[in-house]
Amino acid sequence: MAPPVRDAACNELLDVRRHVALQQRVPKYPANVTRPLQGVVQFVIDETGAVQTPSMPVSIDMSYDSMVMMAAKKWQYQPATLNGKPVKFRKRIQINLVPPSEGR
Question: I need a surface site. Which of 52, 57, 65, 73 has the fewest CB within 10 A?
Answer without folding.
Answer: 57
